[in-house]
């Protein structure tokens, strides 16, 4: 085995070529270094078979397997999938009998990882899945039966004195397994097994943290994004954990050199304020979704807080005492103890259970509002119009859902006023030519808010003995504002020649119809002592109801989108004329 | 014209595919055709053998080495142009329809996509003797402006920029990297970008030509390296009515013609624009974990997904959606030489069709207000009821009874529901009573049997152990006891049967009530509320039953225990 050091040298050179040099290959010859590496590997293979008689059979078989593996990866990298598959298969065949021994297990898992990748490139994702799942199973079996840090494949071509430490071995082995999990996450995602995919993403993040294989900013962003997935599943405990971890890890950024090989660091440092604001936005969504989900649980069929439900849920919560949560928590917990402690401290700041009364809701609201301020610091109108407005819309939504928990109508009204105050100036400054979509959203939201305020004022008024002129004035002016914004929205649908479209586009059909319907109702609500004026308002109201009915007669396919409104409108169209007739008769009794 | 115009408004993103003719090299080489255009809307990629065999029979052997199954995929697009289509045809069916909208003040976007060498540049720019879509667009635009110059003053300004490595560069003047920002008045703005005012279509073309020479990689180089540079050519049109009036009508519109980076290396070079392209391929770098997670967190509904916007996406923020009209032209080569590129391009184009739906979904979502909505509807209903009542009154009491019926239908139903709830309650309390008695009877019977059994056992023991005299005495006593027990048993049996009858009666009653409830609800179903109530009652009964049974069992068990203890003595 005199040539052994030379063999090892060649092997090492091949690996450097394909890992380091190939990155510098010109685009015209993207695989130049890979091809050179392949040639070297072939040489090593030949030398090895020449020395066949020498060594022990087992050792030789493993070395051959390492070479087959390297060749397999090389061929896959250079888009020669069939050849790559052959090599990798040969590698696994050679290792099959020893796959659970410390000198083979890592290589075997990596070979299966690569077979998984290879099959995914052939669009046969199920085949990829079987390879990767078997790699996962092998890891688990090995850790259960042996558990000692296994040899890294490259060690088979190293002199004794160069061999890796146990620590390094373990690190590499775990990294290979992390990759298995990460590939599985992708496989599941492609197979639309979203929950599984999320679970594997979570585990990947967790392992990155455990083995320090992460870059803080990147990791934080991923954890924050994953929280948004949990929000869609209403798993608030998991979402909060991800967000808290994201915030904690993010605060490390800049203090800690990256462990992974990344050259984007500088760019990311530059982006730090933006990333921070992004995480803040994820927190906003967390608070908002938590409040909104709680609202959904608590509201009765007309959207008011149902006290019976409230009591029931409170009793239930006492009983459960988060027994269940603890079990779930264990499964998702991130990080080593010191990180974990900071994460838990971070979590303390906001609840992850549904708020059931105003006090609890308010606490979550305040946290959300703080994050709104933080996010707005970076996403200013000047330069980030759409982002800024999205944040303001969230802020408004926070107020809206908080108002649900408020029992006092006056105070509730004030909350809606806050919404108006933040939305109106933004809307006024926006150029609809470029931000049509946002303008429409704002118009509708403003109109709805005014509408809600009017409703509240009416409710307050109804409690009084008699409506005083001040309240009447207030109600009328709020109704007028609501009408104004609905009309603005409808105007935005007009074509450049200011003509309202004959047929509405599918995406604005419902909003437009609802706007018409609301305006009709608002005209019906306006309070006036002047009968003539009242008649006029009724006439206008009738016109809007008629529009709805006639439109649906003309385009029956619009009916499913606005069934309830249509039904009500039809009745109004039948009833209003008679009422108006009566009023008219009252006005001129002599004629 | 008009009907198609209507439809155009609805279709925000139109995707067309152009297949270029085979080159000399491809015809000569051992390559086959992998794209087969069926008609204007359908093409087959990698069709089954026989179809291709027909053209290119002898070369089959080469492809068979791959042993790969033919994909035989059908793709549908808004329009497909085959090898023989002319530039004019492509123009007529794509950007021409945009020009009307553009002159009406809509923003328009044309995206060209495809691998280098697939005919993208040819389609967009064309050759000197066969000008492409951009040129034809500009020609038509200037023509149309000429037509309306009597009524309107038009200003055209253009800019040309490139995005390379996520950096924006002006192609018409020398500049450093430029920054994108959003302005609430002017939309998306590239700071420091030079604007030019060409007088004619020719001048525009010269600018394009000049700009192309400035591109980081010249797009006509064959060396596949333009793949990472997007070129964005934007035309701003400002129209003003000439008729002097106070409120002057000004139309502003922006047309963006975009030469997207080639698709060929998108996976190999982790290109930033690869977000769209991602196929089923597994991404190997853990750094791309974000892509997977992004895909999980769907931003459509109330979520925030903080992915890093590419410069191109930011640039087009105001040009996709809203009143904007978008056309995507995907260029492909028919040859097997570009098998993967073509496949990727088609997949990408196919996915681009979905942009339409994702754009639509985020307009104004009213679903958030649903709960509030119920309130409104309820109120409205009340108002209607009130109006109806008034109307009836006004109509001088005609058919007051019916009106009441009609007006209070829903109210009535509520009352009915309450009534039935009451009935159900009674019915079930009755039922519960019966069951209780029945079970009691059953228990007594069991007890009875047990006692009989015990008597017999006891008697046997006595027979075994005691003198005849005693036995006789015991027999007598036993017979007496058994007789009592038997009478009891018959009695219980009767009671049990009685209860059973009661129960049957009750069940019949229940059925009747159920049928009546069905009539109450629409389409022959029991109203949901009542249905739940009914279910609740059933379950409750079951629970009561089980509880009673448990109690009875326990008493039987204690009884047995007692006997055993006695026996042991």
UniProtKB/TrEMBL annotation, chain A:
It comes from the Eukaryota. The keyword Cytoplasm applies. Keywords: Cytoplasm, Cytoskeleton. Pfam families: KBP_C. This is KIF-binding protein. Belongs to the KIF-binding protein family. InterPro entries: KBP, TPR-like_helical_dom_sf. GO terms for biological process: central nervous system projection neuron axonogenesis; microtubule cytoskeleton organization; neuron projection maintenance. Activator of KIF1B plus-end-directed microtubule motor activity. Required for organization of axonal microtubules, and axonal outgrowth and maintenance during peripheral and central nervous system development. GO terms for cellular component: cytoskeleton. It comes from Neodrepanis coruscans. It is found in: Cytoplasm, Cytoskeleton. Its main location: cytoplasm.
UniProtKB/TrEMBL annotation, chain B:
Its main location: cytoplasm. The keyword Repeat does not apply. It is found in: Cytoplasm, Cytoskeleton; Nucleus. GO terms for cellular component: microtubule; nucleus; spindle. Keywords: ATP-binding, Coiled coil, Cytoplasm, Cytoskeleton, Microtubule, Motor protein, Nucleotide-binding, Nucleus. Gene3D superfamilies: Kinesin motor domain. The keyword Transferase does not apply. SUPFAM superfamilies: P-loop containing nucleoside triphosphate hydrolases (SSF52540). CDD domains: KISc_KIP3_like. GO terms for biological process: microtubule-based movement; mitotic cell cycle. Residues 377-451 form a coiled coil. PROSITE patterns: KINESIN_MOTOR_1, KINESIN_MOTOR_2. Pfam families: Kinesin (PF00225). ATP binds at residues 114-121. GO terms for molecular function: ATP binding; microtubule binding; microtubule motor activity. InterPro entries: Kinesin-like_fam, Kinesin_motor_CS, Kinesin_motor_dom, Kinesin_motor_dom_sf, P-loop_NTPase. Belongs to the TRAFAC class myosin-kinesin ATPase superfamily. Kinesin family. This is Kinesin-like protein. It comes from Neodrepanis coruscans (wattled asity).
């Amino acid at each position: 085995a005199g040539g052994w050091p030379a063999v090892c040298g060649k092997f090492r050179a091949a690996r450097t070529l394909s890992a380091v040099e190939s990155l510098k290959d010109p685009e015209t010859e993207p695989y130049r270094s890979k091809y050179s590496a392949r040639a070297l590997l072939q040489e090593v293979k030949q030398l090895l078979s020449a020395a066949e008689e020498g060594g022990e059979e087992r050792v030789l078989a493993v070395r051959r397997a390492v070479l087959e593996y390297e060749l397999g990866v090389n061929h896959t990298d250079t888009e020669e999938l069939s050849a790559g598959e052959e090599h990798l298969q040969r590698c696994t065949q050679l290792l099959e009998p020893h796959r659970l021994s410390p000198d083979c297990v890592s290589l075997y898992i990596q070979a299966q990882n690569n077979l998984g990748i290879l099959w995914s490139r052939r669009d046969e994702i199920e085949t990829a899945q079987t390879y990767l799942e078997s790699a996962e199973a092998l890891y688990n079996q090995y850790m259960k039966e042996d558990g000692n840090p296994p040899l890294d494949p490259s060690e088979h071509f190293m002199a004794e004195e160069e061999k890796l430490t146990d620590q390094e071995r373990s690190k590499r082995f775990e990294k290979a397994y992390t990759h298995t999990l990460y590939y599985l996450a992708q496989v599941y995602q492609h197979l639309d097994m979203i929950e599984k995919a999320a679970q594997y993403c979570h585990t990947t993040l967790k392992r990155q943290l455990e083995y320090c294989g992460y870059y803080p900013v990147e990791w934080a962003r991923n954890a924050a994004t994953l929280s948004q997935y949990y929000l869609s599943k209403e798993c608030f405990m998991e979402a909060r954990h991800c967000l808290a971890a994201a915030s904690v890890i993010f605060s490390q950024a800049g203090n800690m050199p990256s462990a992974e090989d990344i050259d984007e660091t500088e760019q990311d440092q530059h982006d730090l304020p933006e990333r921070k604001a992004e995480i803040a936005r994820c927190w906003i969504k967390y608070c908002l979704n938590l409040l909104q989900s709680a609202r959904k649980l608590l509201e009765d069929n007309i959207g008011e807080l149902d006290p019976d439900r409230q009591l029931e849920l409170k009793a239930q919560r006492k009983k459960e005492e988060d027994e269940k949560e603890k079990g779930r928590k264990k499964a998702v917990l991130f990080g080593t103890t010191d990180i974990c402690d900071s994460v838990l401290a971070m979590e303390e700041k906001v609840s992850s259970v549904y708020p059931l009364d105003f006090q609890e809701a308010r606490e979550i609201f305040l946290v959300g509002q703080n994050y709104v301020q933080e996010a707005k610091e970076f996403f200013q109108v000047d330069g980030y119009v759409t982002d800024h407005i999205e944040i303001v819309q969230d802020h408004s939504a926070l107020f809206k859902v908080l108002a649900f928990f408020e029992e006092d109508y006056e105070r509730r009204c004030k909350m809606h006023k806050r919404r108006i105050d933040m939305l109106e100036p933004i809307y006024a400054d926006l150029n609809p030519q470029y931000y049509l979509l946002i303008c429409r959203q704002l118009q509708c939201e403003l109109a709805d808010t005014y509408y809600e305020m009017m409703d509240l004022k009416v409710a307050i008024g109804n409690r009084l003995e008699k409506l005083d002129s001040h309240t009447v004035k207030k109600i009328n002016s709020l109704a007028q504002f609501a009408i104004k914004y609905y009309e603005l929205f409808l105007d935005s649908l007009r074509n450049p020649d200011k003509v309202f479209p004959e047929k509405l586009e599918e995406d604005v059909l419902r909003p437009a119809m609802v706007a018409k319907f609301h305006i009709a109702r608002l005209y019906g609500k306006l309070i006036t002592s002047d009968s003539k004026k009242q008649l006029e308002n009724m006439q206008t109201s009738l016109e809007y109801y008629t529009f709805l009915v006639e439109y649906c007669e003309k385009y029956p396919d619009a009916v499913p989108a606005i069934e309830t409104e249509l039904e009500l409108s039809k009745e109004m169209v039948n009833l209003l004329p008679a009422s108006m007739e009566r009023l008219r008769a009252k006005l001129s009794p002599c004629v | 014209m008009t009907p198609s115009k209507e439809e155009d408004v609805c279709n925000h993103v139109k995707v067309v595919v152009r297949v270029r003719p085979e080159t000399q090299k491809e015809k000569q080489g051992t390559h086959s055709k992998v794209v087969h255009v069926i008609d204007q809307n359908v093409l087959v990629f990698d069709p089954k053998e026989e179809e291709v065999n027909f053209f290119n029979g002898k070369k089959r052997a080469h492809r068979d080495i791959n042993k790969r199954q033919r994909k035989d995929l059908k793709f549908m697009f808004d329009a497909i142009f085959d090898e023989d289509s002319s530039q004019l045809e492509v123009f007529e069916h794509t950007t021409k329809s945009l020009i009307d909208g553009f002159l009406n003040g809509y923003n328009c976007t044309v995206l060209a996509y495809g691998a280098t060498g697939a005919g993208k540049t040819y389609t967009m720019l064309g050759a000197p003797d066969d000008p492409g879509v951009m040129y034809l667009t500009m020609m038509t635009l200037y023509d149309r402006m000429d037509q309306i110059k009597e009524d309107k003053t038009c200003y055209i300004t253009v800019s040309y920029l490139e995005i390379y490595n996520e950096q924006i560069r002006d192609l018409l003047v020398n500049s450093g990297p430029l920054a994108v920002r959003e302005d609430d008045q002017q939309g998306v703005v590239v700071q420091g970008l030079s604007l030019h005012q060409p007088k004619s279509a020719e001048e525009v073309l010269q600018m394009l030509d000049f700009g192309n020479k400035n591109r980081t990689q010249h797009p006509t180089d064959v060396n596949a390296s333009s793949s990472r540079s997007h070129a964005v050519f934007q035309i701003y049109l400002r129209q003003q009515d000439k008729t002097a009036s106070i409120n002057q009508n000004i139309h502003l519109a922006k047309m963006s013609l975009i030469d997207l980076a080639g698709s060929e290396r998108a996976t190999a070079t982790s290109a930033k624009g690869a977000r769209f392209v991602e196929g089923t391929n597994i991404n190997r770098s853990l750094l791309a974990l974000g892509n997977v997670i992004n895909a999980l967190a769907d931003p459509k509904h109330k979520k925030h997904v903080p992915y890093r916007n590419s410069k191109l996406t930011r640039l087009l923020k105001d040009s996709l959606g809203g009143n904007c009209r978008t056309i995507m032209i995907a260029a492909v080569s028919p040859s097997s030489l570009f098998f993967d590129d073509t496949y990727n391009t088609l997949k990408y184009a196919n996915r681009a069709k979905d942009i339409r739906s994702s754009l639509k979904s985020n307009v104004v979502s009213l679903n958030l207000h649903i709960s509030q909505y119920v309130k409104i509807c309820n109120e409205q209903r009340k108002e209607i009821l009130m109006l109806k009542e008034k109307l009836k009154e006004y109509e001088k009491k005609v058919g007051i009874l019916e009106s009441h019926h009609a007006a209070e239908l829903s109210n009535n139903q509520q009352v009915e529901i309450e009534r039935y709830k009451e009935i159900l309650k009674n019915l079930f309390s009755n039922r519960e009573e019966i069951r209780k008695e029945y079970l009691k009877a059953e228990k007594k019977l069991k007890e009875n049997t047990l006692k009989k059994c015990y008597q017999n056992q006891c008697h046997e023991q006595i027979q075994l152990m005691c003198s005849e005299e005693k036995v006789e005495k015991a027999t007598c006593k036993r017979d007496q006891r058994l007789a009592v027990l038997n009478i009891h048993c018959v009695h219980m049996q009767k009671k049990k049967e009685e209860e059973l009858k009661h129960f049957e009666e009750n069940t019949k009653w229940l059925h009747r009530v159920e049928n009546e409830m069905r009539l109450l609800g629409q389409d022959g179903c029991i109203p949901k509320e009542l249905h739940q109530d009914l279910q609740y009652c059933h379950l409750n009964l079951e629970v009561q039953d089980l509880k009673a049974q448990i109690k009875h069992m326990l008493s039987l068990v204690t009884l047995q225990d007692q006997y055993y203890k006695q026996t042991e003595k």
